Amino acid sequence: MKPRSLTVGAFQSECYLLNVPGVLIIDPGDEAPAIAAALTEFDTPVEAYLLTHGHADHICALATLVAQHPAPVYLHEADAAWAFSEANQMPPFYTPTLSVPQDLMSLCDGQRLRFGDHTVQAIGTPGHTPGSVCYHVEGEKILFSGDTLFSGSIGRTDLAGGDTIRMQSSLQKLAAMAPETVVYPGHGPATSIARELRINPFMRS
After folding, report:
1. Residues 30-81: pLDDT tens digits?
2. Domain 4-203 has CATH 3.40.50.300
3. pTM for the full model?
4. What is the per-residue pLDDT for 98?
5. Do the Cβ atoms of 28 and 35 come closer than 8 Å?
6. Read out DSSP for 129-185?
7. What are phi and psi of 15, to 5 degrees?
8. What value, to the nearest 5°, has the Cα angle with vertex 10 and ends 67 and 31?
9. Hey, which residues does 187 pair with through a beta bridge?
10. Chain centre to alpha carbon of residue 94
11. Pairing with 137, which of 173, 178, 192, 198 sits 20 to 30 Å away (CA)?
C-alpha cells in the first residue's frame, strides 16, 4: 500500500491520497483542481478527509473538495477551535474558508478509525500545534506525520500554539514505533522511523 502524493501550494505541502479502498485524503492543502484530477485515478469515492493539523497550508483546498466529494472531515478539537477562523488566514498565500465543515468529526489521542479492512489510529502529537496528530495505518506500517516529523527535521514550535516541551514528548512516541514504519510528512520526502532515529538529532533526546 503506497499513497499517491501531491506537492501543493505556496509552502509546498504534501497532500496524500490513500485507497483503502475508498480514498482517504490526507491534508488537502491547496490546488483543489489538481487534487480532484488525481482522484480520477481511483475507481472508489472519497471515504474521509484526515487533517494532521489545522494550519492553512494543510486545509485550504478542503472546502472545495468537500463540496465536490462529500465525506467526513477528521480534525483534533484543539485545532478545530481556530482552523476555520480569521486567525488562520495567510494572505496572499492562503485564505481558507471560514465555514466549519458540516461533517466535522472531532479526534482524540489514540482514537481508531475503521475504513474497510483497514484501521487508522490517530496519534496525538502536539507541539507544532495544540491539536497535531499523526495517522498510523495499522498493519501497513505507514505513518502520516503532518508537521510533527520531517526527513531530518521537525515542525516549527515557535508559531502560535507551538510548544517545544510537548513536541519532545510527541517525538518520543514516534521514536517508539516499529523502525520499519514508513513516514510520509507534511513537507518534503518520505522517510522511515529507523532513518530518523539514525540521522535526525531531534529524535535522539
Report:
1. 999 999 999 999 999 999 999 999 999 999 999 999 999 999 999 999 999 9
2. no
3. 0.96
4. 84
5. yes
6. STT-EEEEETTTTEEEEETTEETTEE--SSSTT--HHHHHHHHHHHHTS-TT-EEEE
7. -110, 135
8. 25
9. 13
10. 17
11. 198
Pairing of β 112-115 and β 104-107: unpaired
How many whole angstroms separate alpha carbon 145 and alpha carbon 200? 15
Residue with cell string 485515478:
41
- Cβ atoms 199, 152 nearer than 8 A: yes
The cell numbers describing 67, all together, are: 463540496
Q: Which three cell numbers stand for residue 44?
A: 472508489
Domain ranges of the chain: 4-203
Which cell numbers hold the place of 193? 522511523
Distance of alpha carbon 51 from alpha carbon 104, whole angstroms: 11
The C-alpha atoms of residue 162 and residue 93 are separated, in whole angstroms, by: 21
On the CB side of 180, how many CA atoms lie within 13 Å of its CA?
Answer: 4
Q: Which residues, other chains included, contact 63 with Cβ-Cβ below 8 Å and sequence gap of 6+? A: 96, 97, 99, 101
